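Recall that a protein's primary structure is simply its ordered list of amino acids. Everything else, from secondary elements to tertiary packing, is in principle encoded there. The following example makes that idea concrete.
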Amino acid sequence: MRRLPSLLGVLLLLALAGCGSDDDGGKPGDPEALLGRAFTATDKARSYRARMDIDAAFGGQTVAVNGTVLASSDQRRALLKGKYSDGGSPQEMIVMTVNGRNFAGGEYIESALPPGKRWALVNDQGPSMVSISDFVELLQESDDAKFVGEEDVRGEPTTRVSAPVDVQKLAERSDSKFADEFARAGGDKLAMTMEVWVAKDDDRISRMNIDMKEKGGPGRLGAFIEMLDYDVDLSAIREPAEAQVAEQPSG
């Protein structure tokens, strides 16, 4: 299985982890209050479907991931199907989480798997869970959240909010082991700004944009997430048969 440079790897895993009207006729009031309502409404959703586009460049390597995500709101069940590219032709990529077990499949990994195996078990990579509402709560805790404006997302009115986010705190929300790895990889050298588009009709997140930059360096990561549906069917997320699973390949 391809191994990314340490910092880029944990950033991609962090990104893969992933609202309402006011009483004054729709004009935004306090960003913290709006984000509080967004946290509550989004946290109540059982599941979601989203489109995700990630573009990153760190340590001399560029990586792009584009696809569709199905996930439970607590991230204990998640399925990403899309394309992975590290400078060559895009290859099919499948990443799945089922009750804390993480699996990778698709063209980008199949050449490293033993005959008859379709999945690699990659439990040693990535956070246990980072939910959409975790992102929103971190925005709410920022002292510098501000309104950007009001925009339509797929024909629905939203309020756009932007704020800097403490990347290390985000890593700590997943688990302490991942936070330690993130710190060792140089997470303290990153600055992160996040934007959310808050739907006026149901207080849920309609869109998210994450922008990470290396302080004093050329490294960057951008993640764009478009929420397509909430409370969706997750029956497609099933743990693969053990006979089809290999331990994470070395090298």
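Residues 31-44 form the longest helix (14 residues). Helices lie at 6-16, 31-44, 107-110, 132-141, 167-174, 176-184.
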